[in-house]
């Protein structure tokens, strides 16, 4: 049994806790929070840009720690799940690895490429697994798309467009503080950057235009190009520029030799809204809606992390090396916005 300690009970820590209730071979054995109220199970007031907010939580059988150092030295914990703000990822991760714990850290892996490299080296030196919680590949629509492109179900990939737009993230002090989160150009956009890399490989060049606020990218549109596939163009629009009534929208439109594959979902006026369920549109004019099941992406992500610890087999979706590459690409896009021209990767 892989025993998980969740560090940081904000929106994402709460989300991971809920997702971990029915894991195979894993369980949450402890939490860590500086708030006595949260350690007592009162999670009211926690909220985010999707899903339900917090409430009262039964923590019977779950250890509680007020100090991170206590958690990482708890002998009953195997895997530390770090859900602190992004500016705390590097130091917390390294000390947890040095304490002999495996680590799952929320995305982005860090706020600088140098710190990301330090984290990867610390994992190698400690012989522990470092995983980064890029949940997007575990969403059923994105997982289905990745399989379809990988096995060539609808022929060769010709082009694609992704989008991820949120409203101002005032539900979280850590996310809304640009210096602590890296801004939407890092904290938000990295979801799709990471997925695009998994789908297509590392691009050779990026061309991005966008809006800068206090030196951080608030909104950007990027084109990715590959030297060995000059005919392949992938684009992505991402940012925190929508109004409060639509706090999240994401999706894609992907073009292959034999089909157009489309998906869009959002939160609209406080309710889930799916104007375009995953749809496969073929040349004969027919539209097929693949059966996806009711999989919880965060549960699948947590299960994948538990399986890595149990089996020792690395999951590409959770790879710290790939997360570090995604962070590097985000910074290349920021550079392109600031310079007003394309940038080599």
Overview features:
Rossmann fold, 345 residues, alpha/beta, single chain, six-stranded parallel β-sheet, Dihydrodipicolinate Reductase, domain 2, 2 domains, 12 helices
Structure, explained:
By secondary structure, this protein is an alpha/beta fold. It has 2 domains: 2-133, Rossmann fold (3-Layer(aba) Sandwich), CATH 3.40.50; 136-298 and 327-344, 2-Layer Sandwich (Dihydrodipicolinate Reductase, domain 2), CATH 3.30.360.10. The protein contains 12 helices and 15 strands. It has helices at 11-19, 36-39, 68-72, 89-98, 113-126, 140-150, 173-176, 178-181, 184-187, 190-200, 297-311, 320-339, and strands at residues 2-7, 26-32, 63-65, 79-82, 102-106, 130-133, 157-167, 205-213, 216-226, 229-242, 248-256, 259-268, 271-282, 287-288, 343-344. The strands form 2 sheets. Strands 14-13-12-11-7-10-9-8-15 form a 9-stranded mixed beta sheet. Helix 5 (113-126) runs antiparallel to helix 12 (320-339). The longest helix is centred in the C-terminal third of the chain and has 20 residues, at 320-339. The mean pLDDT is 94.
